[in-house]
Amino acid sequence: MSQSERTLGVTAAITIDAACWLLLLAATFLLCAEFVGLWAACESTIVLGLSWRLVGKTTALFNFRRVMMTGFWYLTYLAMIFIPAFFVFGDQVGPYRSRYLFAVHSVLITVPTGWILANWFCRFRKRDNERFFLAKIANVDNAKRLKTVYLFLLIPSIILTIIYVRSVETIPLFYLLRNPGEYMQVALLREDSFKLLDSPFSYAFFVVRAAIFPFLVLVSLGCYLQTRKKMWRNLFIGTLAVALFYCSLSIAKSPVAAIIALMGFVFYYYRGGIVSKKAIAACMVCVLLFPIVVISVAYQDVADVGFVFQAMSERLFYIPSEAVYYYFEVFPSHHEFLHGRSIDKFARLMGWLPFDSANYVGMYEDPTGLESVSDNAAFIADLNADFGMLGVLLGGILTGFIMQWFHIFAVRRKKTIITVALYAFLVYMFWFLNSTSLPIVLASNGVILICLISWWFERRSILNHARLGLEKLRPMQGPGTRLHGFPSLAEPGE
Length: 494
Description:
Blueprint: H1 3-35, H2 38-55, H3 69-91, H4 97-122, H5 127-134, H6 143-167, H7 172-178, H8 183-195, H9 202-227, H10 230-248, H11 253-270, H12 277-298, H13 305-317, H14 319-330, H15 344-349, H16 357-365, H17 379-411, H18 417-431, H19 438-442, H20 447-457, H21 459-473
């Protein structure tokens, strides 16, 4: 590509980005004016305009050939939380709506501010994102170690799958297939099959479903795309089959959809952001296929096309924002602030009694529902439940900083299949900030764990590169010199 063509491409991307932002500003003003008020519409537009300025310092939001983790999260936040908040405001009554709307708007400022602070702290520049996309995918230095570590993770995961099947008295998927239309009974079985399962491996079952199996699928897919070897093709097909089977047993819709979406992300980053519209459409259809089938079978008596479409639309684009609202209605008006007790592991570490905020809010919202209900909500919901509005503001900055730090951690690594799989995993997992808290994303959903596993996959490679770098410095050292406070390389026994 010539310099002039590259310049024209950059200019076109900037123009499209600006046009999309202007359309978003117009839609925000009109919706807020309709459901909240004219003055509030002016304020919302100003906040979004400031957010445009902040976001632009770290990512090109509407450049769909350069979708980064932060940009993907921001777009989904707009679609799932911010825009629906105006409809939620119109549907609710009482004094809690203003605090809720203020908190939702604050995220547009605090999270991008956290991104900027992380860039400054890590000396990361916006153009480094482009290097990640343009870099060629290097071979993993030790292919034998890669396969060994892969099998070391895969075999225990399969064993846990077998233990899980033996531990659950009635598999919800099998019951649903035999008894279509009995949604309430299936919902009870789904609770018993995971959340209420009495097994010493319960947490391991969840981690394998949420993190281990998805990441192994990504690694095997990436290795097959790069090497085209029969071994990796067979490992990919086998791992995918077991993973889809295991994730579908509880009929929870997101685990199966997550694996398909993650495969799409891996393909996108493997191709450097250049994929066809047909491939994107096919991926979206596959992502929605399992949820559509589950809803259709579970609500067999009423599940026409309109019902399925409405149910999925509400679940994706209204309920997440409505769930956030109830946290602002409950805390502190109906329950005092928790001061960190909603974070299970942190509360136990401090010797406190953990508080299940998701269950409490779910029972408040629907007292006649399941006693084990969990009304999870976006990360600002638990920040408010724990620390109030100050927690929402400071926690938003911290969340943005952590999100961008993980982005920088992945982008700066040597670009291998492991790095591509890791980044795809991070993109999807941080999207869950729109439906759960930051500690759950980092711990239970596996962000920290998968970062450690990716390091484990390439540990030998990293050590080799460090050793080669030191060997290049060796001729430069004199017999009595020291390098940054370490003993001279020429005299290892000193």
